[in-house]
Predict the structure.
Amino acid sequence: MGLKVLKNIFWLLSERGVIIFSALLVSGVLARSLGVEDYGRFQYAISVFNLFLALTYICGAEVVVPSLAGSDSGSGQRVVRDAFFLRFFSAVFAFVLLVVYAVAVEEGDLRWLLIVLGIMLLFKEPTGVVIAWLQAGTNNRPSSLIQMGASIVKLACVFVVFFSGHGGLLSYSFAWVVESLFVALGLRRAHIPSIPIQNGNPLFA
């Protein structure tokens, strides 16, 4: 097993570890702050969001990564561009449907909670093509660092809201939006290099 593969395994395991640990802390803070009823409503909203997120699963990694592996710079960038726009338009479609569902079915703060969480649809899957590019180049370090940083940022936001004494469904929901925006901006900053993946060059030095 090559050193590069071991490094990628290390970064993936580190990413999973940070995400799981921060998620446990976040869940504990939410349960303590919101109480049983509102905590259940928040989890319901997250579940509904995940259902609409499934509508954006177009051109997944299992399709994009093999197309990118070994491709030259021009064809690789075309694959990434096409996958991004397909995912983006599907994300917009899913967001519109979620808003319609929230307005038609829900009411009060739960309606606004779903709409705020729905903003993440516009960030999550479209920018995920950069992760596919990194995976195709066997370079998981940049995306893992971004994901870990985003989890820490969300945890920090949750603690800020908790200790401010203004914890509520909408207040906490913005922590999720900030996390997804952090990931999107981080991956955007990585951008797609004008070099072939097959050369094995990383996006970050």
Summary: Residues 3-53 form the longest helix (51 residues).
